[in-house]
Amino acid sequence: MALGGFANRVARVNLTDRSVTYEGINEDDARKYIGARGLGVKYLLDNGPEVDPLSADNMLALVNGPLTGTEVTMSGRLAFVTKSPLTGTVTDSHMGGWSAARLRWAGFDAILITGKASSPVYLEVENGEVEIKDAAHLWGTGIHDTVKHFRSGSGNSTDVSVMSIGQAGENGVLFASFLNEDDRAAGRGGTGAVAGSKNLKCVVVRGTRDGRWRPEQGEAREKFRAAQGQHLKLIMDSPVTAPSSPSERGNLASDLKEGSGALSAYGTNVLMNAVNAVGALGTKNSQLTQTDADAAEAVSGERVRHGGLLVEEPTCHACPVACKKEVEITEGPHAGLKMESFEYEPAWSLGANCGNDDPGVIAKVIDQCNDYGMDAIEIGNAISMYMEASERGYVDTPLDWGDGAGMVRVAEEIAIGSTSIGRNLGLGPAKAAAVWGHPEISMTVKGQAVPAYDPRGIKGEGLGYATSNRGACHLRGYTPASELLGIPVKTDPLDWDGKGPLLKIFQDLHAFSDSLDLCKFSAFAVGAPEYAALYETVVGLPMSEEDVMVAGERIYNLERYYNNLAGFDGSHDSLPERFLTEPATGPAEGHVCELDQMKEQYYDARGWDDGVVGDGKLRELEIVS
Amino acid sequence: MIIRFYATLRPLVGGRSVDLENPPGTVAEILRRLCDEYEGLEGQLFDEDGTVRRFVAIMVDGRDIRHVEGLHSRVSPDSELDIFPPVAGG
What we know:
By secondary structure, chain A is of the alpha+beta class. Chain A folds into three domains: 10-211, Aldehyde Ferredoxin Oxidoreductase,  A, domain 1; 240-442, Aldehyde Ferredoxin Oxidoreductase Protein, subunit A, domain 2, CATH 1.10.569; 459-620, Aldehyde Ferredoxin Oxidoreductase Protein, subunit A, domain 3. Chain A has 25 helices and 17 strands.
């Protein structure tokens, strides 16, 4: 194995016969699919795209990238890749924190889990070995207590990472998540439900920096230093990511260092007011596209920082940006609650989308999601769909818009499955709305709920949701970088023309960075040239800017190929009818999302035939020979 | 006219919004008055050559002026103005 960065060790864990075998990285696959997301999807494809997601045959792959755990800035991401029980597509969901780095330091590029244990188990990973251990005593335990259990039993708790599911995954909630260290989630797609179906409670990793990759001395070291230096400089200088400075963090509420990037200072929730101002903030289950400015402000990043809620700004491995925002609720029924992290997506899904402007309720439900192990985007959409069903008289036990106590109660009912409403919503809003006979009130694509950008007010995201290979997702191709900010160029969020080719660029670039696996927020400061230089100096293979985009395109097409084999085609690249026919309100008033026109441009750019990758494209990208 | 500021611009103007009396007719004229009044604001909004800094978003009634007439965009007394520094997330 000549490729740098990799540990060249993969564990295959079969929970049915409790066997663990080890192998190296397939070099040809690593060259083509880079690592993490790309390599993970290749493992899934080889495992077969027709498996039942909740069967023993499905694979849950935890995969690092070649940069993971190095000193490269923002290299602390880990991909969970599986066939999603929520969507039926292949999915990958990434967590921050230190788990990815510790998994690499413990000697692994990937842990590939198949089978089903006869009773609850957990995996212990240390020094290049994986052990399957009994977890019966942990089944039924929340994630916070599971983490505490392992950390209290460890000599040096800072070297331990616990990636765990909660009760939601055990109970088959289809949008159950994995979390590490209490609050960093691989949130989307139901990875926790897959683990629960296998009787797998958690993965415990012990790894120290002694195990990290370092460049060889001499010229290779100098080249790596130059690439990393440039990468870091751009992140430190960016008006988005420039750190608000560790020395300032003792003074959270008021003054900010001059030049502080807004993402660092306010976290992702700095978007709340901006997206509302342009009229793209879905409100009351996306019946409206703008909420009252005071309601948005009440749960915004500015409110968190300047309104006395912010208490800490944790970060991830090798990241100076520190976008995580830990809050303490100071009033109301949830006073005293300290939790991380008050992010934009759940602040929207549980805020405007549910007619709620109480940050205490948002913090409480996010914390429930962190403990029960649930996707905070999906649960907000499930609750808002339930509220609309209530408003329209479709259910017997209604929940009113903005009923905070009711939201907290329903979140628990979903996780525990203690009521018929909770069990139904635990299927996800798409299936739940169908059960109630009203699929039109579910804001989902391929079964996964939409994030916090209404596609009538930011049209590129509409195309992004529709064509995402994992169901509705803002992160597959983050066109708001262009439509709101202006990266690489400013495009009009209300103009559909040209969004097809634009989206392809974002999708391909993000597929590459997700495979390195670097935090996607790096793309606000760096791009293909920096990714290429880092790959080249760590892995040791030539990589140009153009190569980056080709590799990203290959990975995106690999995912699409998997989905095609699993039965998906262009008819599934759709949006809820509401976005196509019900005009927006606010500044985007009168606009709908022109999906068909954008899809035509997009498929042309991709070279796909109605959402299907043809043999020619598969050969061109060397996915098949 | 109420002009709302966000994120890192708020400490510069001392709050969430500024009430501008007798607002002039274009975005450029309004920004000139604001920059004269609030120290440090000009450097956050403009490059040295007087163009609006890349990634700064100035919105009149929810429309980014980059998609209308830029700094020459007309503003009526009942318009709403929102000014954002570079903001992004996910």
